Amino acid sequence: MIAKNNKQGQNRQHFGNDKKNGASEPYGNQSFHVKRTKSSSQQLICGMRPVMEAINAGKQIDKIMIANNLEGQLAQELRSMIKEAGLPMQYVPVEKLNRLTDSNHQGVVATVSPITYHNFVDLLTSLDAQSHAPFIILLDHVTDVRNLGAIVRTAECGGVDAVVVPDHGSAMIGEDAVKASSGALLRVPICRESNLKMVVNFAKQSGLQVCAATEKGASHYLSVDFKLPTLLIMGSEDTGISNELLKMADVRAKLPIMGEVQSLNVSVAAAVFVYEMLRQRN
Question: Is 236 helix (H, G, I), strand (E, B) or coil?
């Protein structure tokens, strides 16, 4: 299973030129052009052929939106390419695409990521060769761009080795997220993975303790040994960490809450854990 996930990660980075999807069709060698949205600095690639060319070129794509009613052989080929590449795909009303761009999008719009994603297996393997104990944050479906940016900013300041996000149901890593992170997203390795359970399993197999930050935890956060190689799981803003990931954790750690509000903002909680790690290690 881990090897399969690694292959998907590699496919996101490197694609060969597929003749079936390339020169054998009209405009097969058409270059893709990166555009801007109507209302923001978000970068887009519009049209079926340009998106296919971007995938073949290994362009870092954040998400591909396809109109609900899009049909035809070329659309089927595009869906197959997206699935093979392991890229996030979302079906949307054509009106949403029209609001995003004035271009002839042909029912397909891809958002371009401003960062290069890393494969978790490869990254953790490379960290094993370093002298310090790895500390990695896994975000379980954190959807607010400002929270994501703030967490990555803290991660960069605290010397965190990487941040892992799911490829579905997470805040989009675009220009707004980069701005919210004060540029830290351009410095901290980000892994985008389709299966968070596989990430946790591989981390455990690699000797990392898995710490789930949760108000349901039995351990006080000061009692956790963060000198050990650690994968810290932070949960979504509304539901927290999923039960399946909670069950996989070696330790569930909580922060003391003295007031009537029963939880901290996820970015604030992440900062507390990161700086407790720094305190212990320094």
Answer: strand
Token couple for 70:
């899009």
pLDDT of residue 190: 97
Q: What is the three-class DSSP state of 11? A: helix
Radius of gyration of the chain (CA): 20
Give the domain ranges of the chain: 2-112, 120-281
Neighbours of 31 (CB within 10 A): 10
Separation CA 133–CA 225 (nearest Å): 12
CATH topology of domain 120-281: Alpha/beta knot (3.40.1280)
User: What's the token pair of residue 210?
Assistant: 């898995």
- Locus of tokens 């993975």: 193
Residue 267 CA to residue 143 CA, distance in Å, equals 12
Cα separation, 47 vs 49, whole angstroms: 6
Q: Give the homologous superfamily in CATH for domain 2-112.
A: Ribosomal protein L30/S12 (3.30.1330.30)
Token pair of 239 as six digits:
């539901």
Maximal CA-CA distance, the chain: 67
CA distances from 222 to 135, 145, 153, 215, 233 (A): 16, 29, 22, 14, 16
16-69 pLDDT tens trace: 333 333 333 333 334 555 655 554 456 899 999 999 999 998 888 888 999 999
Q: Count of CB atoms within 10 A of residue 75's CB? A: 17
Taking the C-alpha atoms of residue 202 and residue 1, their distance in angstroms, rounded to an integer, is 10
* pTM for this model (two decimals): 0.78
Sequence length of the chain is 282
pLDDT tens digit string along 76-102?
999 999 999 888 899 999 999 999 998
